[in-house]
Amino acid sequence: MEAEDGAQEVDFCPLNFTEDGAVGDLDEDHLVPLDALNMRLALVNLQHCRETGLGDEASGARAKMADIILKSRID
């Protein structure tokens, strides 16, 4: 992802890559560009909100994954 200074950096859960030098061993071909992925997800969400009649303002709303999963089990 892009850092505040414009440089690219690897971001990850602190529970992963706990050994010294582990991040440096990562193959760049296996990294996911989070900024680009998040932009695409936001656009897909916006399109979904428009198509379902929720409107643009609903596209920024957040939901807990547990609530989504439980709702899909009930439906």
Short description:
With 75 residues, this protein is mostly helical. It has a domain at 33-74.
Considering the chains and any ligands shown, give keywords for the structure.
mainly alpha; single chain; 75 residues; 2 helices
Overview of this protein structure:
37% of the residues lie in helices and 0% in strands. It is mainly α and 75 residues long. The chain has a domain at 33-74. The model has no long low-confidence stretch (mean pLDDT 87).
Mean pLDDT over the full residue set: 87
The succession of helices and strands, N to C, reads HH
The rounded distance between the terminal residues' Cα atoms is 36 Å
Helix content: 25-40%
Number of strands: 0
User: Over the alpha carbons, how many angstroms does the gyration radius reach?
Assistant: 17 Å
User: Approximately how much beta-strand content do the residues carry?
Assistant: under 5%
Q: What would the principal axes of the Cα set say about the shape? A: extended
Which regions are unreliable across 5 or more consecutive residues at pLDDT < 50? none
Biggest sheet layout: none
Number of helices: 2
Structural class: mainly alpha
